[in-house]
Amino acid sequence: MNKDGDLKQTLKEVKHLLLAWLFFASWVLIYCGFEAYSQDHEDVKITLGMPSWVFWGIAVPWICSIVFTIYFSLFVMKDNDHEEK
Amino acid sequence: MNSPLFSFGIYMIFVFLLAWFAGRKSARSESFVSEYFLGGRALGLWAFALTFATTNASGGSFMGFPARIYTHGWVLALWIAGYMTVPFIAIGILGKRINHVARKSGSITLPEVLGKQLKSDAVTLTATGIIILFMFFYLLAQFKAGGMILITLLGEEPLFKEGTLIMSRFTPDWLDPEYLLTLVIFSIGVIGYVVYGGFRAVVWTDVMQGVIMFIGVAIMLILALNQVGGLSKATKKLSEMPPPKKGKVIFEQTSETLNKDIYIKKGGFYVTKNNENIVTPLSSLTIKKNLKKSAEIDAYIYERSLISNPIDYISVNIISQNNFAYGSNSKGVYLKAPGPDPSNATGFLAIVTALSFFIFWPFGGTGQPANMVRLMAFKNTQVLKKSLITVAFFYSFIYFFLVVIFCCAKVLMPGMEANADRVMPEFAELLSKNAGVPWLAGLLVAAPFAAIMSSVDSFILMVSSSLVRDVYQRFNPDASEKKIKRISYLVTFMVGILAVIAIINPPDYLQDLIIFASGGLAGCLLMPMAFSLYWNKTTPLAAIAGMIGALLIHLSLTIIGYFKTDKFSPHDFLGMNPFIWDVLGSAILIILISIMDNKNSSSIKEPSFR
């Protein structure tokens, strides 16, 4: 890959990352916006010991973000050709 | 010597040994400046991943964050949720590109990368000024936190008490001799190893501190869940806890205590005359002998049944009591958003504020100069890829489980709202004592201490590298390697000493200063750096306008906030963190001025754009 190719590849990676951020931000904020703020305080559902909105709106997307990071690091991010190995 | 102090002492010995080895390696290096300030640009996986992770996790992560979880409950999981994207945004967006550009241009510091990329000394000097201005505030807060944690460990030691007594003879009344002594001990330690070992010492000690933080959280999690009887039980108990009331109380002497001074401790537990409530004062005071009662003071007020072992030898009367502005008389409020709040009628975390933090954590982290410098120091893309995964696991573990741990703390150790900043060391001590291993408290308290040290060392080096490389070397380009070495040691030492002098009498609004400084740094530097790396039409004038524009927006919002709240607290325009307005303003200015100033852009085509 030449130097111009390196920059293009890096920009492609940055687009992936920004889209991923948008996806996780939407998931967390929309889900929690509806579930965490709206329910009756007296009747909070619990999943795996935590409030259900924390489990589905934060814990699960958090795990998915780790999976995305692994996928991105292994399959999307490319080495620069001319760098030290 | 108490056992927590012993285990903490062993930890500190390891820190100094690592710094000593690092210093020897730096001394043998052929290029002193590159080695001292950037570790020879050869950081491998663990060094890069952990120095990046720990520098970002400052004292606030282990002191302020637990205090907020304790005060507001599970909603803090939403407040911190943006950290799920911090690894891939803060490392991934700029990492590969900034490393490549800095390596190619031989840049050591961040202002140097900007200046060389845009071929402008004015850009370098503007960025240097901004870094020194904001970073200094940041340093002050971390030094204070370091001193405060040491008080927890040393407070009961006879030798320390004697030292405090001697210190009090030489200090004026307005100085707290206990704090002053711990500040001196902390400063000698940290400044010593940073000056001697440089960047490599900072990185190696960061690695060890990262491991300590990880182990500390893991042990606390196991002990807390075990002692509370499982997370489900903790959450159910938490759902039954109402927020305390806040009010004014008066302490009165009894006939037994009338002939001596009585010290009322901030956060201590005192029973009311009618035995129905317990109060915890928000400030300490002494009732002089023969004075019948104290002045009115603010306090949290709880039901008597909440605490089993209050200090009850002094009588206290409740003058007035008010509900929390949001969440009182409502069970389950600690399990839901927006979370209880003593003074905000809309609760702790409105959804628009949650959005603001989801933007601030990852993008604010990207713009922190101490993080960007680390991105200049990894060896190659292979290291970057593996580090991304490592940091993702590290942050997920630390931040999510801190929420779990301190929700358990609320159940196991109720009534600490008045002293919430001390919830971390107190809970570490309680868990270790209950588990029958008191020495473990030393290791657990080492976790926040490690977080503070790993930030202080990085910030000292950041400021000194800017002064040596971007100011001294710029005006003395022919200075010999030996002279630069001496100047580097001296400047690093002086930066540390100046910070200590400035924080001898710490202001109350220090936490606000941290927010002001971290937001300001990222707001001013993120966009100029991102545009200079990725957009070849960026001009020097546009980059300077981006930095100055963001600085002015940041200062304006802080001044407006000051006049509105009478505190050093920035104004959240439309509920959004000032950082977001800084970045928006900076980006607009850079784009507009670059387009208007485009005749200059052809001259800045740096080789990395061809």
Topology:
The complex is a heterodimer of chains A (85) and B (610).
Chain A: H1 3-38, E1 46-47, E2 50-51, H2 52-76
Antiparallel strand pairs in A: 1-2
Helix pairs in contact in A: 1-2
Chain B: H1 3-28, H2 32-38, H3 45-56, H4 59-62, H5 64-72, H6 76-79, H7 86-91, H8 95-105, H9 110-118, H10 121-154, H11 158-170, H12 177-228, H13 231-239, E1 245-252, E2 262-264, E3 270-272, E4 277-281, E5 285-287, E6 297-303, E7 311-322, H14 351-366, H15 369-375, H16 381-412, H17 423-435, H18 440-475, H19 481-502, H20 510-534, H21 540-565, H22 578-596
Parallel strand pairs in B: 3-7
Antiparallel strand pairs in B: 1-6, 1-7, 2-5, 3-4, 4-6
Helix pairs in contact in B: 1-12, 1-18, 2-12, 3-12, 3-15, 3-16, 3-18, 5-16, 8-9, 9-10, 10-12, 10-18, 10-20, 10-21, 11-12, 12-16, 12-17, 12-18, 12-19, 13-16, 14-20, 17-18, 18-19, 20-21, 20-22, 21-22
Features:
heterodimer, A: 85 residues, mainly alpha, two-stranded antiparallel ribbon, 2 helices, 2 strands, 5% strand, B: 610 residues, alpha+beta, Sodium/glucose cotransporter, 2 domains, two-stranded antiparallel sheet
